[in-house]
Amino acid sequence: YVHTYPDLPGGWPIPELAEYYGLKDHMSISDPYDWMYGKFTDETMVKMHAMADVCLNVGHEGMGLATLQSQSCNVPVIGLKEAGTEEILRYGVFVPIGSTIQTPDLLVKALPSPENIASALYAVYSSPRSKWAGGAEWVKKNYDWSVILPKWSKFLKEFEDDLEANCVSSA
To answer: Which residue in 44, 78, 137, 143 has its CB near the most CB atoms, within 10 A?
Structure first.
């Protein structure tokens, strides 16, 4: 199952790549309309993550929600060792950056090498499932609303105080 937007401008042509590599009949791709407009309930998302053997998240998802969701279901994550992934991946395997490309929209994207992804998959599958069992507790301890909201409230208050102290009012 591939939970992605398959035709994102500047993104990877997932359906075409699946066809090229002979994977089309062995996978399904989510309907972008369904997930972009909230047709997947929280319960459905939990089921999707929980039934996975591994979450391969070596793209550029921003916050890394899939990484946290998978770990919260005790599913190991293979993540690209860059940006925010280094902060949120605790139960999985990091894949080093293999190369970079510049996209037509002038972004530079880090890419893993296929060999490193294969090595990471082997590391996950050759490890006992119990190795990844702490993910749910770690996510709850560090990313539960009761933990996150006070941090955001403090940050926003400090930001507001800084604005008032250092910005010139137009009034």
So the answer is: 78
